[in-house]
Amino acid sequence: xxxxxxxxxWNGILKSxxxxxxxSTGKLPFSFSSRMEGGQGSSPEELLAGxxxxxxxxxxxxxxxxxxxAPEQVRSNAKAHFDxxxxxxxxxxxxxxxxxxxxxxxxxxxxxxxxxxKSACPVSRALAGVKxxxxxxxx
Length: 139
What we know:
The chain folds into two domains: about 5-35, no CATH class; about 45-139, GMP Synthetase, Chain A, domain 3. It contains four helices and six strands, in the order βββααββααβ. It is α+β, with helices and mostly antiparallel strands. Strand 1 and strand 2 (about 20-25) form a beta hairpin.
């Protein structure tokens, strides 16, 4: 099985420093501004959201296929909520909005499969301490 790696480096003090996360596909700059203020650049939380959206889309496609359906498209948009609600900066919730084009499936069956995928997706399991809200709709 493939092991995935990433490297991160931070230079300087928190507010004026800059960092870079290096993935096998490229480099993502990040800063205090990009992480806390919506400035230009990436953030570790953006990578969490992307990882969940990608994993869930693939897992839902596989689960639909196992149930006898041939999905044409699964699109997931994840929003990681990074806040200080509990006294420490934490990702406590990720909202996952999913749209899928699946010929021949009714909404009841689709919802059953989509909710089951939430607990089956490897990234969802890795994020077991995070509340994941799935809002799945057929396109």
